[in-house]
Protein 1
Amino acid sequence: MTLRERFGRPLRLGLVGGGPDSWIGPMHRSAAELDGWFRATAGVFSSDAARSRAAGARLGFDAARSYGTVAEMLEAERRREDGIDAVAIMSPNDTHYPFAKAALEAGLDVMCDKPVTHSHAQALDLAAMAKARQRLFAIAHAYSAYPMTRHARHLVLSGAIGTVRLVQVEYIQSGLATRVEDGPRTNRLRWVLDPQRSGQALVMSAIGCHTQHLASFVAGQTVARVVADVGSLMPGREVVDHVSALIEFAGGARGTFTVTQAAAGGENDIRLRVYGDKGHLEWNHREASYLKLALQGEPVRVIGRGDPFLPPEVIAAGRAPRGHPEGLREAFANLYAELAQERMAIALGEAVPAFPYPRIEDGAHTMAFIEACIASQREGRWVQVAGAG
């Protein structure tokens, strides 16, 4: 019997955020249910109680489980025999910490969108709480769950490219390449353009956290120190739309880091290159199913998702043969599948698989990295990343 068959049912998931007009909500819901590990059964879909209940009905949820507030959902689900097992948080950035804390206090596992918190201190608090309550806490860094970024990590950790010397990572977008501040303020723009709600540096909260995590994940190293240029490409803008940094990893490798949401013509362009003393590998989001491996003195190889020689855990992260497109939804689904399998194994008293999904400790490192970048801009010097080692 499979692990899911032995457990007897899908895990029940409560959603926080992701209403009918959200794009990230359907991504989380469909990914969680894609392989049958979770079933979304309850939710809070708006900060307005009446709108939340109405949104649940529009999305097809049971009216009795479409709640007005997170506190109401947690209390009502606690009293049910078929109550939720986990919470997925995709609400505005400033709510992540209090909602995640409440979920952990209710004894639930958590899948949280980024940024996991507003500060490093808050992330450390959640990490300690999750450990004390023996709860699982995953972060939705889906770029680290593509089969080829998983294989890139495998190649680095197995020594295929030798000792890592240089890591170059960038994430370029164009959503803030115009003066969106001067146009109509949608509900999303109202909180995104408010620094008190979107985070310490908007571009870092939006895409920079993904970028740092991907680089550290593939390189297998945390960032030890950084010197950064933190600011805005758009004149007069109050929120941060650009960060460029030189980074040094705990293992001694050097790196470059660039993120912006204000590059005209950019289109979610993520690129990663990792250079070792034997060669390098390269991955980009536009061709997510392929990984380039170039070893010194050998022909360049292009490895594809689904190639039969890949490690079993990398093949398992894909679902279709090579040449058939897979993308972000499937990567999200890999995170949900790994979270569910770990929880089921724990519940059944079985050996817990060593899944590499991003955890709250990774989120704490990301928040320390963001704070180091901001401190570097303020102080004009290299800054140590708290807790890196």
Note: The chain has a mean pLDDT of 95.
Protein 2
Amino acid sequence: MNWLLIIVILIIAWTAVYYLAITKLKSHVAPYGPALLIKTQAGVKTIEKVSKFKFWDYFISFYYYALPFFAAAGVALLVYEAFLVLSIPRSAAPSLSYVLALPGINPAIPIVWGIIGLIVAVALHEASHGIAARRFGISVRSTGLLWLIIPVGAFVEPDEEETKKAEPKTRAKIFAAGPGMNVTLTVIFLVLAILVAYSFAPVPGAPVQSSLIPAFHPGDVLQSIDGISIPNITALSDLSITPGNYVNVTLLRSGHELTERVMYGVYVTAVLKNYPAYNAGITTGSVIISLGNQKISNITNFQNLEDTYKAGQTVSVETFNGTSYNFYNITFASRYSYLVSSGVANPGIPKDSAFMGIEVSVLGLSLFDQYSYLSLIRNPASAGPLGFFEYLGLPFHFELPLPSVLLSTIYSNPILLNLEYLFYWLFWLNFALGLMNLLPIVPLDGGYVFLNIPALQKNKKARDAIVAAVSLIVLFLILWELIGPRII
């Protein structure tokens, strides 16, 4: 598919539509940069009716006074992330496609759920501005959509002259209502997503994400090995089976039980170039039989033995590749130095920790911990102080919605599973939109609230200078997260 040709055709077609719209439909369409504001009266009467409830006075006032604290928290988060960026190697810099929280552009956001979530978040955000305007007696002239080839936003248009004549505090409250609604919806949909998650139950076993052994497929759930029950992935860490022996593995595949016969052991799944194992000639797919003449029966055994050595010491390593045994003498490197070179600022381990330069796993498997996953989506705090951000970051690991190969790891009702996806994305996109608009940067809502703080109105030149300075600092912090990893 020739994407460049498609893009050129879309630009030409949009230019023609844009010209016709602003020349022939002036009463309903207005230019907004390269986009079009399509004005309607849809929803104006609804806003009028909804705004009559006194509840909105409390809602608007609460978020007017709370917004500076939320904004400060948002800026503090940006500052914290600015320091985290320093530890990200250039090779791990996030793709620019992750910058915009738009379905179809951001690969972490699913198209259908993303569009639904974005429509709800933007529509209710804008409706809140209209409701706040009406509470202060300001007319709502129109509502509508912002189009740039496709709908990219919505708006509610209070009367501009009436808004200008209003007190600065009133204007600030109108601006605060939008992100306030997103914060409220974030909490509501987070609670709903958590409640639905309690309807799920884990499938006992060790789910496979990927495997070196062709006998295992992504989505398989290991149940037992030679009759030894495997209720979870932890059970694989402490098995006592002779390495190199063949074992019968019982597993579930697409709901059906079957048995595969494979060679047991701690497999080398990756070898790091220019580190001891690579230099010695150890290859991916080999099973480690012994380390220092002691048999390696499981991961825990391997890690404990490796920890008894220090960087600079030499050890004998025996491996088996299915046809022949191989012996190597390896001089350990420093795990501490390796982690530092990988971008970890303070590894928190002794500087002489032994490191062979390999990654290993039982049976060559990469596994998925369905118990920890369910614990996280039922209670984000279960993952510790930063559990909320781990929960928020699930899409960037493509774990919510779950990849199809991992749906076999939980028992779920299809209706409730789809509700979980819906509530999660409504939570996620309201959080993203609310957080962005809380920031004290013009032309975002937080910036206009800052601009209309009554205490800053005595000296408008000083006010404008302060707001501009803060806006530039916040903008720099946002851009630094994209630029930092690429220049360090």
Note: The mean pLDDT is 88.
Protein 3
Amino acid sequence: MKKINQFIKFSPILKEKIWGGNKLVKKLNKDSDKKNIGESWEISGVRDNVSIVSNGSLKGKKLNELIEEYTSDLVGEKIFKNFGTNFPLLIKFIDANKALSIQVHPNDETAKERHDSLGKTEMWYVMESDKEASLIVGFKKDTNEKEYLYHLKNKSLLDILNVDEVSKGDIYFIPAGRVHAIGGGVLLAEIQETSDITYRIYDWDRKDVDGNYRDLHTEEAIKVIDYTTEKSYKTNYTAIKNESLPIVSCQYFTTNILPVTKSILINNTAKDSFVIYMCVSGEVTFIYKNNIEKLIMGETLLVPACIKEFEINSDKNSELLEVFIK
């Protein structure tokens, strides 16, 4: 079987949103004349939104076609065994010019039963935030369905939800069932299971471009919400220059933070997985044999599972998110 021997970039899939802005174009260099772009799907295997390769000899091929052709060489043996030609992660950059709806996602079991889909566990890395910008993550204190519905009916959910002001580098893990919302003025990277299932709880009583309220999913959400609370929802960490530091690790994905200020050698021999690199600040160069790819802030690269050793170089203070499946 022919070996895959290159780093892979994909053409971003840009999504206009009622809450979107212009930072994906102006700050992350996405090429579009669309207005209100809220999301850039960097790597996607979602039906009807499958990523297309934008570089090298594989240019023009779809992600699922690559998996069919290269199987475990691309994604790893265990991942191919478990997911076949379905890519298990959805990688995004999100620009919330205005607040997203308050929402929740179902777990795998419920999503399979209701939608024949994976559930949606995700994480956020804040790349930039306006002054006093915030995120909603979880509850302030343990609650229950009755109390939740009371506040939903009276439009006072913020009385019981946890709101955190955020700044660059803040990290949040959002397991399925945790109520959440991205506030206006936040630019972030999102890593999640391959699922587009969202239950919209409250949408700030706003109307879409046609003057209609967007659908809410009150009944669907009630039974999937985790009504318990955490002392803190933010991930605490101290990054170390030129070393990969785990910041989120769950059954669906592991994410490391990797600040790069020089040339470093990467050895992924122990990983049976593709590795995705999201550049969240600065500029880096990836080198493998004669294959060289530059990555600037807002770009994403997929390293096939069969490429185990390569070099990453930067002469700036750059930062990568390194994503794989254990």
Note: The chain has a mean pLDDT of 96.
Protein 4
Amino acid sequence: MNNNRQENALQRAIRAATKVEPNELKATVLSFLFVFVLMAAYFILRPVRDSLSSDWTDEQLSWLWTSTFFFSVIAVSIYGAVISRIRLRVIVPSVYAFFALTFVGFYIAGSTLGENDIVNRCYYVWLSVFSLYHLSVFWTFMSGLYNKEQAKRLFSIIAMGASAGAIVGPAIPTFFADNIGNLNLLLIAAVLLMVPIPIIMKLESLRISELGNEDVQADLAGDKKLSGNPFSGFKTFVSNPYLLAIGLFILFYVLMNTFIYFELRKMMGDFDREVRTQIWGGIDLAVNSLALLTALFATGRLATRFGMPITLALIPALMVGGWVVVALSPVLAVLIGLQVTRRAGNYAITRPGREMLFTAVDADTRFKAKPVIDIVVYRGGDVVTAWLYTALTATVGLGLAGVALVAAAFAAAWAGAGIYLGRKYERGGD
């Protein structure tokens, strides 16, 4: 009797703090763990990639981003062809197993060839492809696991797992890069990428047994296949105004990321590579600590109380003010503060809100059109905004203050896109 009372009290406390219903708790915890492991692996790899960027000029980096876009198009096309021919139950775990093997391959190449610029550039491009794939596939799976009402309450809690993983992940290169070495970090991440595979199978069984979502179209346990056209995702994207609006929203986000990233890497050019790895890792720690607190106390309540228009427009609106501050005080510390705010807001608020949008579409759109948006549109935005930045700085001659004012104007447009998209979602995505 006392045990039952204690259990009920615990359930009430969890529900009050997180808005998680008792039947959703197991799936939410496993989803949290799933993305925690993914992000820990990625953030072990990310500082290694970013430490390489200061070795190259703006033009060389712009060409690398251009290469990333073309590799992303090829990867999404191959992915579309493969998932048209295999059963849904093997798609998600196969993606993570494949990427784990590729990072083992980079470890072998680095050990065999030593310091090699071609290998470094290939790693930079490949991790940039992976950085979008691993989360795109994860959120595709999540949007087919939970219904729209559950997504509003639970996605912010699940996103806390991403923030927690992104705290643990960069702590390893930040504090141990000198002792472990950059190459050994690749093996650690490869092992972590295999952990989600059994979690995926368990979550799919919980979709019906505990979440009660038989009508959500993402059944990986059955023999269902997607439509046979490997390029249907591209066609769906360009013909659907709702998806095009999501693509525009992402393009504005990418521009914010590009402008800050290029300025930060310039300012770190005087440090050696291990120190750069530690600095980038330190930024990641600050970002994800703030994101975790925000997701815990604000995100779910923001989406349920104020709706999607405000949820999607909040961080863009903050970026307008942030860029103005950078224009008035164009120094490294202020730029780092803006980067921390932008990325923490993305992980805790903007990204979960954006992923809620895909609960309004069917499985074929999620698995085939969503990667086009998350990867091809994103990397296409990288190319456009990287060359835009290069033109503004190298051709027009703008410094950080001038770049900041241009970015503030784009941030205002981004906020408008968020309001528009949030209203469409609340009308049913029509």
Note: The domain at 21-205+230-426 is CATH 1.20.1250.20 (Growth Hormone; Chain: A;).
